[in-house]
Design brief:
The chain has nine helices and no strands. With 188 residues, it is an all-alpha fold. The protein starts with 11 loop residues before the first helix and ends with a helix.
Length: 188
């Protein structure tokens, strides 16, 4: 039986399986020191390897789905945090979420680089979405009088610098301390 067209909606059980596979792969890629075995992802998700390949015919397809889910979460999270927290606290919580996003990508590095090179993942779009999320929080903070007006692109670059410089850091608290310094610099 041929697989359904990608434009057709998935049955609810197929959607659940796909979502479980993405969730398990997200966790596996975030904690992996090396390649993640797709068989282990399927087993942990409680499905067979055939189900994994039905949803994600290649490792690249799975990595791209994980990346898209992470990007949606990290960029969509800004509004939710602002609804719950004062802007400066929302910014700090969002920076932690962004750090987790970057950490998840570490286990997918080679595949992500290939996806970017092929154009399947557009880094300018990713950067715009990240910068827009930061901008929304900074705007709320400026309006509340708790955060300085700052160029969200500058803050994006600061955060990327922190994440790149702490990628192999042996001090697990260093990233958090550096994020605290950025927040301190942005407080009014």
């Amino acid at each position: 039986m041929p697989s359904p067209e990608p434009s057709l909606p998935l049955r609810s059980d197929a959607r659940r399986n796909r979502d479980k596979l993405v969730a398990v792969a997200r966790a596996a890629f975030a904690t992996a020191d090396g390649p993640v075995a797709l068989e282990a992802v399927a087993r942990e998700a409680g499905v067979g390897i055939g189900t994994l390949y039905r949803h994600f015919p290649t490792r690249e397809a799975l990595v791209e789905a994980v990346y898209a889910a992470e990007l949606d979460d990290v960029t969509g999270n800004a509004a939710a945090l602002l609804a719950e927290l004062p802007p400066e606290q929302a910014l700090r919580a969002w920076m932690d979420r962004y750090a987790a996003f970057v950490a998840t990508k570490r286990g997918m590095g080679d595949v992500l680089r290939a996806s970017v090179a092929s154009g399947r993942i557009a880094t300018p779009t990713t950067r715009r979405r990240i910068t827009a999320a930061i901008g929304a929080i900074l705007d709320a903070g400026a309006e509340a009088g708790t955060l300085r007006a700052a160029d969200p692109e500058d803050v994006t670059l600061l955060l990327l610098g922190v994440f790149l410089s702490t990628v192999d850091e042996r001090d697990p608290g260093r990233t958090g301390r550096m994020l605290d310094l950025i927040l301190d610099a942005l407080r009014r």
